């Protein structure tokens, strides 16, 4: 599904990712944990195709294709969904309209018919009900004045509608409140499927009490320092990241 090989990334001449290797197979849920400044968000931005990152070495294959040569929208069409800490606000565009446009754009590129408004309404109602998204919220402009939990609901609803094969969620530092935490974890768990993979990036072990990962990676100083099973998250909760941030971890 996703294969990252020896990925080196620099910003303004400073190397931030220093050789990342990561393989995600269909159906797997991976957690990437690590201290602030270790490069977790940089990795998610590179996967998203954000500008300003220089890939100095390495490659990323998504379903066997060179991801780094794809435009951000091509990545979405190919089945990648990225959720970020700071969702954009779109004044003047109802959440419902935004979601319909996003879904139909992807369907069109995937060679599927666009959904009519009644078809879309039926689908969105069904998915929204499962995620506790109210009809009132769907009429409001996307993210404008939304609470943290509502933003997460809108994002997870978008994810549910687009039916991605790989979801990358960067939740680091976002200080999810209990409501938002539950929305994210219930949403992610509901979307777990044998053909769908997830990468959950988080600073906090707490999220992983709700989204139980198959594989946990510790990232520090631009590298994956350690990989283990779900018990690794528990160990990090108890011991913190001290073992990974000192000179010894370089
Ligand atoms: P994390 O998400 O693990 O906290 P980041 O990927 O946000 O880490 O940041 C990794 C390092 O790269 C930090 O030292 C940060 O200051 C630096 N960095 C990230 N983005 C930029 C940027 N656009 N310009 C300069 N430095 C950056
Ligand atoms: Mg960093
Ligand atoms: Mg981050």
TrEMBL record:
Residues 2-246 form the ABC transporter domain. Belongs to the ABC transporter superfamily. Ycf16 family. This is Fe-S cluster assembly ATP-binding protein. GO terms for molecular function: ATP binding. InterPro entries: AAA+_ATPase, ABC_transporter-like_ATP-bd, ABC_transporter-like_CS, FeS-cluster_ATPase_SufC, P-loop_NTPase. The keyword ATP-binding applies. Keywords: ATP-binding, Nucleotide-binding. NCBIfam families: sufC.
């Amino acid at each position: 599904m996703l294969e990252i090989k020896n990925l080196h990334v620099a910003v303004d001449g400073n190397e931030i990712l220093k050789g990342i290797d990561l393989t995600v197979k269909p159906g797997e849920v991976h957690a990437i944990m690590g201290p602030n400044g270790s490069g977790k968000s940089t990795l998610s931005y590179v996967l998203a195709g954000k500008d300003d990152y220089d890939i100095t070495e390495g490659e990323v294959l998504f379903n066997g294709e060179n991801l780094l040569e794809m435009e951000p929208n091509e990545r979405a069409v190919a089945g990648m969904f990225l959720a970020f800490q700071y969702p954009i606000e779109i004044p003047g565009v109802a959440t419902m309209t935004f979601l319909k446009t996003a879904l139909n754009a992807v369907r069109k590129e995937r060679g599927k018919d666009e959904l009519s408004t009644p078809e879309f309404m039926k689908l969105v109602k069904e998915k929204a009900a499962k995620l506790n998204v109210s009809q009132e919220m769907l009429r409001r402009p996307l993210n404008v004045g939304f609470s943290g939990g509502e933003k997460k609901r809108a994002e997870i609803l978008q994810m549910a509608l687009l039916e991605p094969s790989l979801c990358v969620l960067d939740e680091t530092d976002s200080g999810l409140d209990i409501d938002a935490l539950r929305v994210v974890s219930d949403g992610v768990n509901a979307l777990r499927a044998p053909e769908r993979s997830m990468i959950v990036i988080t600073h906090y072990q707490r999220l992983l009490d709700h989204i139980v990962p198959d594989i946990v990676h510790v990232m520090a100083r631009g590298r994956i320092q350690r990989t283990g099973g779900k018990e690794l998250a528990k160990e990090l909760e108890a011991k913190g990241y001290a073992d990974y941030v000192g000179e010894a971890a370089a």
